[in-house]
Specification:
Elements: H1 7-26, H2 31-54, H3 70-95, H4 109-130, H5 139-148, E1 155-158, E2 161-164, H6 189-219, H7 231-249
Antiparallel strand pairs: 1-2
């Protein structure tokens, strides 16, 4: 199977996504169903773009070190949830006859703050890691890390940062392990905590949105204000992201003069013989 989709297949997938969206635009009967279908369409679009660009179905979640990025996962997850809900509310208001379906919708200020926190992490993460790319790792640290990994031949480094040589070697385990040559074989609790808090907050807000949509559907009323984000949840997310970025800034590997940085590169041919290209990255 080729590492990239052929152009006809890519156009066919995009056409199906657009047709599904157009159908929803003119056949809105159930706001919950509309929202869930839009969420599925948004997810499919992200996966399509990732496959088209990188050759991996989950390529949108993989960064320039060829590892699955936690910041990308949480940012794309929040974007898909909120944007699909917003579009569903607009279509529902239009279905009920509103001449200004967008103006009726009021977004909670704390929700914008939550999305801003996610965006900040996405932007700040590579800035924090950039300084570590100019340092050489200690040979002993790197060797011990390689011995802990099941596929050491696929390992590379960008300064103190651990990387994969090809995009096909990215796995979901990257979400839980360290990012440096000295701790890539170990569990990173700050990353586990942020992933857990992100999942909890996504579920909590999904339940709140579902309740608001059910009320609007049963009462046949316009969808107005989106559910508020509780102050406690906002603090929880803020503290989690702050701790995550602070831990990312602290060096966890010793430096040395052993070798110059070995950048990881995308090998287009690496996935051509891998039958799991269209599956989620697995270890």
């Amino acid at each position: 199977m080729p590492s990239r989709w052929t152009r006809p297949l890519s156009l066919l997938v995009l056409l199906l996504i657009l047709l599904a969206f157009l159908y929803l635009t003119y056949h809105v009967q159930d706001i919950l169903q509309t929202w869930h279908v839009l969420l599925a369409i948004g997810t499919a679009l992200v996966l399509w773009i990732g496959k088209l660009v990188t050759g991996r179905l989950f390529g949108a979640f993989i960064d320039d070190r060829n590892v699955v990025s936690l910041s990308r996962v949480q940012m794309l997850s929040w974007s898909a949830l909120v944007l699909s809900a917003f579009l569903a509310a607009v279509l529902w208001n239009s279905h009920l006859g509103s001449s200004q379906p967008i103006d009726l919708i009021q977004m909670d200020g704390r929700l914008w703050m939550l999305l801003g926190i996610s965006t900040t992490s996405l932007v700040a993460s590579p800035l924090i890691l950039h300084a570590k790319k100019g340092l050489n790792p200690d040979a002993g640290d790197f060797q011990r890390t390689l011995e802990m990994l099941p596929a050491a031949e696929g390992a590379a480094n960008q300064g103190l940062l651990f990387a994969n040589r090809t995009i096909g070697q990215a796995t979901w385990k990257d979400l839980f392990t360290g990012e440096e040559t000295g701790n890539a074989g170990h569990l990173d609790l700050s990353r586990v905590q942020m992933l857990f808090f992100t999942l909890v907050s996504l579920i909590v807000y999904w339940v709140s949105l579902r309740s608001a949509f059910l009320h609007a559907q049963e009462a046949k009323t316009f969808m107005g204000a989106f559910p508020e984000v509780s102050e406690g949840l906002l603090w929880l997310i803020g503290i989690s992201h702050g701790g995550y970025l602070a831990m990312k800034a602290i060096p966890k590997s010793r430096t040395g003069d052993s070798a110059a940085p070995t950048p990881a590169t995308v090998d287009d041919s690496s996935d051509s013989s891998d039958s799991s290209n269209d599956q989620p990255p697995v270890g």
